[in-house]
Design brief:
The protein has 765 residues and is mostly helical. The protein has 42 helices and no strands. Helix 1 packs parallel to helix 3, helix 5 runs antiparallel to helix 6 and helix 18 runs antiparallel to helix 19.
Length: 765
């Protein structure tokens, strides 16, 4: 049977369109029709899988995703969908096997980090999956990650023991022992195996699944598993546990310790009226530090309070005291201390974070969000260029407004929780840099902020957007659209996903859908008070549809109201041009007149007034409306007295309107201006051009005649007068023509007799 590629493509396209409209049953029908033409193409199966998924038919969705994976020869995107549905159906063992397969594919492609992520997923879903633990053990060993490698080796040993193969279990433990010969867990496991007892189950935190890179891992709170010893090492104040609060705590401890050895003028104590001298204050600080590091919180609080009362009034002491109050759940007292330390630049980040945590603990989510947004803004400012700072600050103001002012407590809570998770793990600074790099890749010409990660609702949203971008880069636009739909399904209010969908629709030349999407997103930004992003979306609309007059007018109004005058004038010019192309000439002129009233508020170096006047003048000239054109060119002449085109056009208009005296006055002024500015060489050419256009204008001809005579070019002067006489006779101006001939006779040319004869004839008429 012959297959019809065109029919297949049409059915596939209709299926995607129905999916876009969420008409899932009709989408299934179209995808099935596509399969009738090409039953071994993966795309229709993936489309049916998505529709069945949305309709809640998970078994059918799984079946079709499996076929898509099979016919695509193991495309990772389809395998991910298979694994996702298997998880939802509770088929955790099968899901683990699928993730294991994805890891193997990525390993062959050289994507080792992604392979490791999927092996972690596989081992989490199917703890008895031996291959996953073996892969992870090998990876961690090669990376020098001893603790993680030992954890995997012990898991492998337990699995061998459960299979009744104690010898392999022992071999595995001995291999682990090579990494750390004194490790208590390994030694205990060997002893248990030798005595025929089961290896104990370690109570470890299981690794949380990672998605595509640290950006998504950070959102989901990925951490390395650790044992009890690791936990003690990674506790507060340790070198590896480096949240903003812990960094500030470490700095406070160091600064207070340094002050104990700093010299101070005892006389200064007296002048300051301090109750205790330096020695007594140092004793209190030393005592407070000792209690704090030993975990004796109540005693540490008491010592810090006495030290502050004795005159120790630095940010380090207040910050440490605030942390101690937090430990005792005395959040109101903690807030008072952090409000003092936050005023110090060094403690600003840690104090805002601690304030956010304290307010969150008290249930005051609005105040918590204000401080958490400030934390993220401070962190994010270090990742962008200086010239981007103002825009970034504005975006964070909009974020705070959307979370607090408009009263969305659920989103505010989710944001707060996500931020604490994001910044509470070691290596968060590197994750911030990686996140910025990924955001820049996703955002294109727009600016995105770290807040966009935390408001996405799920790491899966960003994963889908990233995959969509990759598919689009490979010209797989239908698949790219499917991924964006998936992102929107995860988080319907996440605007970056809608923007990316609009761009994909535009690339598919589905312009009306793209324009509707960008307009809707712009309206949403406007309602949220994010004017810059609203304008950006509306500008995208008029970029795709330059003749959309209504949207252009909306952009102009917003720009004017928010003081963006130059950009507003740019759009005025574009709007006027659009009206002109639509044959709405009167509307175009009205638009330029409105722009002219706004022009004085624009940047002087842009010369807006001259540009707009020229547009108005051009319209009037094309409509032969000389009077209006004269008014425009008169203003233009004042705006730029050096412009030759304006000066000559103004002279022409005066002649057209029968006002030669004004025309000659304007001409003389411009010619004098040329001479005085050292450009006198242009005078002859200008006069010749004017005479060519107005051969019967005596005043013009006389000026060129005088110039020729001054240059000893008598023959050319005589020819000019001869031509003038003929032109005047044709216009019936006999007396003026006689005057021209008389002037020729005065110059006494060689053929003067013929001119006298001509003069006699003319007088007899």
């Amino acid at each position: 049977m012959a297959h019809n590629r065109a029919r297949y493509e049409e059915a596939l396209s209709r299926g995607h369109s129905y999916s876009w409209d969420q008409r899932w049953e009709e989408a299934v029908q179209e995808f099935e029709q596509a399969l009738e033409e090409f039953p071994e193409e993966p795309a229709p199966y993936a489309g049916i899988g998505m529709a069945c998924f949305e309709l809640g038919r998970l078994d059918q969705a799984l079946e079709n995703y499996k076929k898509a994976a099979r016919y695509s020869q193991g495309d990772v995107i389809y395998l991910r969908q298979v694994a996702d549905v298997q998880e939802r159906l509770g088929q955790l063992g099968d899901a683990g096997q699928t993730y294991m397969a994805i890891g193997e594919i990525q390993l062959r492609k050289g994507a080792l980090d992604q392979a490791v992520d999927n092996w972690h997923r596989a081992s989490r879903l199917a703890p008895n999956l031996l291959g996953a633990h073996q892969r992870l053990a090998r990876y961690h060993t090669k990376q020098g990650q001893v603790r993680a490698a030992i954890r995997e080796y012990l898991a492998i040993a337990r699995l061998f023991q459960a299979q009744g193969d104690s010898e392999k279990a022992l071999q595995t433990c001995r291999a682990a022992l090579n990494l750390d010969p004194r490790n208590r867990d390994i030694l205990t496991a060997i002893e248990l195996i030798q005595h025929g007892e089961k290896i104990f189950e370690q109570q470890h935190e299981k690794p949380v699944e990672q998605l595509d890179g640290d950006l998504f891992a950070a959102v989901e709170g990925v951490t390395d598993s650790y044992d009890d010893e690791d936990e003690a090492w990674d506790g507060p104040g340790s070198p590896e546990a480096a949240s903003p609060v812990q960094n500030a705590r470490r700095m406070a401890l160091e600064q207070l310790a340094e002050q104990l050895f700093a010299e101070e003028d005892e006389a200064q104590d007296d002048r300051d009226g301090l109750v205790l001298g330096k020695m007594e204050r140092d004793a209190l600080i030393s005592q407070a530090l000792d209690y704090q590091t030993r975990g004796r919180t109540n005693e540490a609080i008491s010592a810090y309070r006495k030290a502050i009362e004795a005159g120790v009034n630095n940010a380090a002491a207040h910050f440490n005291l605030g942390l101690l109050y937090q430990d005792k759940l005395r959040f109101e007292d903690a807030i008072q201390e952090f409000e003092i330390s936050v005023q110090d630049q060094e403690y600003r980040l840690g104090s805002h974070f601690a304030l956010g945590e304290s307010y969150r603990a008290r249930g005051q989510i609005d105040k918590a969000v204000e401080h958490f947004v400030t934390v993220l803004k401070i962190v994010d400012l270090d990742t962008v260029q200086h010239e981007q700072a103002d825009r970034l600050i504005e975006l964070y103001e909009n974020l705070a407004d959307s979370l607090v002012t408009r009263g969305e407590p659920e989103k505010a809570t989710e944001f707060s929780n996500a931020l604490v998770e994001f910044l509470s793990h070691k290596g968060w600074e590197d994750k911030v840099k990686d996140a910025r790099a990924r955001l820049n890749a996703l955002s294109g010409d727009r600016m995105m902020i770290l807040g966009d990660i935390l408001t996405a609702g799920s790491a899966k949203v960003l994963e889908s957007l990233y995959l969509s971008q990759e598919y689009a880069r490979r010209q797989m636009l239908d698949t790219a659209v499917e991924e964006v739909f998936r992102a929107i399904a995860y988080s319907p209010d996440y605007l970056p996903a809608h923007i990316q969908l609009g761009e994909l629709l535009a690339r598919q030349e589905r312009m009306q859908a793209a324009l509707s999407k960008f307009t809707a997103v712009g309206d949403t930004f406007r309602v949220r008070g994010d004017i810059n992003n609203a304008i950006s979306m509306y500008e995208r609309v008029v970029e795709l549809s330059p003749l959309d007059v209504s949207i252009r007018a909306r952009v102009i109004d917003m720009l004017k109201r928010h003081g963006h005058i130059d950009k507003s004038l740019e759009h005025y010019l574009a709007l006027g041009e659009a009206c002109y192309q639509l044959a709405q000439v009167d509307k175009a002129r009205e638009t330029y007149q409105e722009a002219l009233r706004l022009a004085p508020r624009g940047s002087a170096d842009k010369k807006w007034r001259a540009t707009i006047l020229r547009r108005i003048a051009d319209i009037d000239m094309q409509r032969f409306d000389w009077k209006r054109a004269l008014s425009a060119y008169t203003e233009l002449r004042r705006e730029d007295p050096t412009d030759e085109r304006t000066a000559m056009t103004l002279v022409d208009l005066y002649f057209k309107l029968g006002q030669p005296a004004y025309a000659l006055r304007e001409l003389d002024q411009y010619l004098k201006q040329l001479v005085s500015s050292g450009r006198g060489a242009k005078v002859t050419g200008i006069l010749k051009d004017m005479v060519r256009r107005h051969p019967a204008e005596t005043g013009l001809v006389q000026r060129l005649v005088r110039l020729y005579l001054a240059q000893k070019r008598q023959d050319q002067a005589i020819q000019l007068l001869d031509d003038l006489g003929e032109a005047l006779l044709e216009k019936g101006q006999t007396q003026e023509a006689i005057a021209a001939i008389e002037q020729i006779i005065q110059l006494d040319p060689p053929n003067v007799a013929s001119y006298r004869q001509l003069l006699k004839q003319m007088r007899s008429l």
